[in-house]
Specification:
- This is PLP-dependent aminotransferase family protein.
- It comes from Actinomadura logoneensis.
- InterPro entries: Aminotransferase_I/II_large, HTH_trans_reg/aminotransferase, PyrdxlP-dep_Trfase, PyrdxlP-dep_Trfase_major.
- Keywords: Aminotransferase, Transferase.
- GO terms for molecular function: pyridoxal phosphate binding; transaminase activity.
- The chain has 12 helices and 12 strands.
- It is α/β, with parallel strands linked by helices.
- The protein has 2 domains: 229 residues, Aspartate Aminotransferase, domain 2 (3-Layer(aba) Sandwich), CATH 3.40.640; 107 residues, Aspartate Aminotransferase, domain 1 (Alpha-Beta Complex), CATH 3.90.1150.
- The strands form 2 sheets. An 8-stranded mixed β-sheet has the order 1-8-7-6-5-2-3-4, with helices on both faces. Strands 9-10-12-11 form a 4-stranded antiparallel β-sheet, covered by helices on one side.
- A hairpin with a 6-residue loop joins strand 9 and strand 10.
- Helix 2 packs across helix 8.
- The chain is globular.
- The two termini are 42 Å apart.
- The structure holds pyridoxal-5'-phosphate.
- The site of pyridoxal-5'-phosphate has 12 residues, from helix 3.
C-alpha cells in the first residue's frame, strides 16, 4: 500500500554511513526494542538488539559466535529443516529433540547440549504453543546444562483465540537468545530480522559479524524503521491477524471432523493422517493446483508424526481457500477409504464415498 511505497522512497534517500554499525542502524535498533516491548512484552534496550537479515542469518551468526565445530545443538524434531542445515554448515552436530502437540518435550532433552533451538510461540510444523510450566522447565534445564536457548519467534504475532504467553527471552534474558523476522509479517524478500540477547552477547555477535563480512542492507533497515516508527507495521500486523483469523476459521470449518492439530496460532495447521498417506494426497492436490506439505518430510530422525501441513498465509483469498479445503477434504476421504474393505463394500452397494 501507500505506507509501504512511502517508506521505501524515503529509505532510498538515506545517506549511507561511512562506517556502518555491525549491530545495525541505531534508529532501527531503538525502534525494534520499543516494538518488542509493545508487541511481545519483551523488555530490552537497543544494545541488546542486532539487526540481521532474518532468523536463518541470526542463527548462523549466533552459532559462528558461541559454538565450536562438533558442538551438539538440540533441534526440534519434526522441526524447521533450515535450522538444522545452518548448524550443519557451521560444523555443529544437530541433535533431533522430540516434540509433541504442545511443543518441545523438555524432559527428553539430553544433558550434553550446548544450545537448543525451539519455536515456543508456535511449534514449526506441529503448531503447539509451549505451556508456561514447560517454558520454566526448559529454562531450568538450560541453566543446569549451561546451554543457550534459541527462541525462534517467526510467527509470534499471529495468535487468535489463545492468550499471548511470555516470550522465553523475557523469562530469562541471560539464557535465551530471541530471533525475530519480517519474513512472515512483510516478506522474506525484505531481508530484515533481529537477534535479541544480553548486551555482551549481542556485542560479541556483532564483532564476529565484522569478521564474516556479514551485514544487513541499509536501505532495508531504513524502510523497516520508518514502517515501525510511523505505526504502519503494527497496523499492518493487526489487519493481517484479523484476516488470518478469518482464514483459519474457513480451514477449521471446511475440515471439521478431520483430526486437526495446532490450530490456535500461526499461519498453518496440520491434518493428522496414518503414516504414508500424506504424500499421495499432496501429489493429487498438486495436480489440482493446491500445494500441501507432507509432515513426514520435516523429520530428521524417525518419523513420529504423519499428516498434511496446510498453510493459509499465502493463498489469494478466502474463496480460493474454501475451494482448496473442500478438495483436501475429498482427497483425504478418498485416501482413507481406499483400503478400508467395509468402505469398498459400501461403495459397491452404491453409497456415496464422502466423509
Ligand atoms: C520456523 C521458521 N523460522 C523462521 C522462518 C523465517 O526465517 P527467515 O527470517 O530467515 O526468513 C520461517 C519461515 O520461513 C520458519 O518457518
Amino acid at each position: 500500500g501507500p505506507a509501504w511505497r512511502r517508506a521505501w522512497r524515503m529509505a532510498a534517500s538515506a545517506v549511507p554511513a561511512a562506517r556502518p554499525d555491525p549491530r545495525g542502524r541505531p534508529g532501527l535498533r531503538a525502534a525494534l526494542a520499543e516494538h518488542m516491548r509493545r508487541s511481545r512484552g519483551v523488555s530490552c534496550t537497543p544494545d541488546a538488539v542486532v539487526v540481521t537479515r532474518g532468523i536463518g542469518n541470526g542463527l548462523d551468526l549466533l552459532a559462528a559466535t558461541v559454538l565450536r565445530p562438533g558442538d551438539r545443538v538440540g533441534v526440534e524434531d519434526p522441526g524447521w529443516a533450515r535450522a538444522r542445515t545452518a548448524l550443519l554448515a557451521r560444523g555443529m552436530t544437530p541433535v533431533p529433540c522430540p516434540v509433541d502437540e504442545h511443543g518441545l518435550v523438555v524432559d527428553a532433552l539430553p544433558a550434553d547440549l550446548r544450545m537448543v533451538y525451539t519455536t515456543p510461540s508456535h511449534q514449526y510444523p506441529l503448531g503447539g504453543v509451549l505451556p508456561v510450566p514447560r517454558r520454566q522447565a526448559l529454562l531450568a534445564w538450560a541453566r543446569r546444562a549451561g546451554a543457550l536457548v534459541v527462541e525462534d519467534d517467526y510467527d509470534g504475532e499471529f495468535r487468535y483465540d489463545v492468550a499471548p504467553l511470555p516470550a522465553l527471552f523475557d523469562l530469562d534474558p541471560e539464557t535465551v537468545v530471541h530471533l525475530g523476522t519480517t519474513s512472515k509479517i512483510l516478506s522474506s524478500d525484505v531481508g530484515v530480522g533481529w537477534l535479541v540477547a544480553r548486551p555482551e552477547l549481542a556485542a560479541a555477535v556483532a564483532r564476529r559479524r565484522v569478521d564474516l563480512a556479514d551485514r544487513t542492507a541499509a536501505v532495508s533497515q531504513e524502510a523497516v524503521r520508518l514502517l515501525l516508527e510511523r505505526g504502519d507495521l503494527v497496523r499492518h500486523v493487526r489487519r493481517m491477524r484479523a484476516e488470518y483469523a478469518r482464514r483459519r476459521a474457513v480451514v477449521t470449518e471446511e475440515l471439521a471432523g478431520l483430526p486437526l492439530v495446532g490450530d490456535t496460532a500461526g499461519l498453518h495447521l496440520v491434518v493428522s493422517l496414518p503414516p504414508g498417506r500424506a504424500e499421495r494426497v499432496a501429489a493429487e492436490a498438486a495436480r489440482h493446483g493446491v500445494l500441501l506439505d507432507d509432515l513426514e518430510r520435516h523429520h530428521a530422525g524417525p518419523v513420529r508424526f504423519s499428516g498434511l501441513v496446510i498453510g493459509y498465509g499465502a493463498v489469494a483469498g478466502r474463496a480460493e481457500l474454501r475451494a482448496a479445503c473442500a478438495l483436501v477434504r475429498r482427497l483425504v476421504a478418498d485416501e482413507l477409504l481406499a483400503d478400508d474393505p467395509a468402505a469398498d463394500a459400501e461403495r459397491a452397494a452404491g453409497e456415496p464415498a464422502v466423509a
